[in-house]
Amino acid sequence: MTGITSTRLSDGRELIYFDDAGTSTSRAGHLTTDHRGLPPRGEPGEVRFDALTDEWVAVAAHRQARTHLPPADQCPICPTTPGNASEIPAAEYDVVVFENRFPSLGPALGPVPEHAAWGTKGPAYGRCEVVSFTPEHTGSFSGLGAERSRTVIEAWSQRTAALSAMEGIKQVFPFENRGADIGVTLHHPHGQIYAYPYVTPRAGVLGAAARKYYDATDGRDTLTGSLLRAEREDGSRMVMEGTHFSAYVPFAARWPLEIHLVPHRRVPDLAALGGEEKDELAQVYLDLLKRVDALYPTPTPYISAWHQAPLDDVLRPAGYLHLQLTSPRRAADKLKYLAGSEAAMGAFINDTTPESVAERLRSVAVPPSSTPVAAMAATPEGASA
Ligand SMILES: [Zn+2]
Asked: Which class of enzymes does this protein belong to (predicted)?
């Protein structure tokens, strides 16, 4: 079992240690205190209603002061040392989650205003958390061992449950931005979790399509489940198939590199996964990231985004957990920029074919995991399941 220990930083923010299942000693008896005496936390920024699109926009000008690519010896998420009182008041840890000191949302909680129209604004309620994947300053998620990967998954799962229960939260979004090209402001391998007080625009679009399909089948099927079946039957875009998870490049991929990782069992979110599913996910996800990293000689920037069912009475029954990993990299030395058609119109033009990307991801040589990926094999080239 992952060891979970919650504490508070000097400004009251919550910090939670997730210790690998193999760690024998309990942390609870010897927690170290954050002695930095940080100033009290500020008020939330604001959300403004964009009447033109029926969407909320968070205005977080206070975040301009946040840490930007600090030198390694001043890293805020390395373990604390005599010369660096970091955000993590411990000499060692495995995985840590803590409230962001410069949040886009929160720290106060509550609902967005009702009956929004032009001019409607309110506090940017919600919560933003940072997930440090490892005490090591350099490296990537793909370099974590299977045990540490499993601990991160346990952290995502526990935080999804906890954040979903907080006042006013409508969507919980764990994600990782990897690479300076994506706008990363810290090199230390880490991810984030946003808990929004509204359903985000993208989740709203996906949720509406999912609900429409769910209704058309009288609640007997889900859209994501049907797409997973269709991709596995077709086979030409499959990247890997496991016992509990499969990954494929979607039929109509938008990005030069886009992979969806989907559980075989319909679950709304990471908190609903069982132990065996999490065990396999820990290895499947590592394998997927190793494949992405093996495509080019230099690290590929990516966004790894967990789509979880919104906490919304209409959308949630049709929701289905899945990961969307996307990258703008279209060649060793080329990134796709979102320009006129994509950025202004949302009309994507993909310069790669999903089938060729899947073929590359299947056939790329991947360094072995520290633990063999049990009961899982990459689909042979061109073969269906
Ligand atoms: Zn660091």
From this structure: transferase
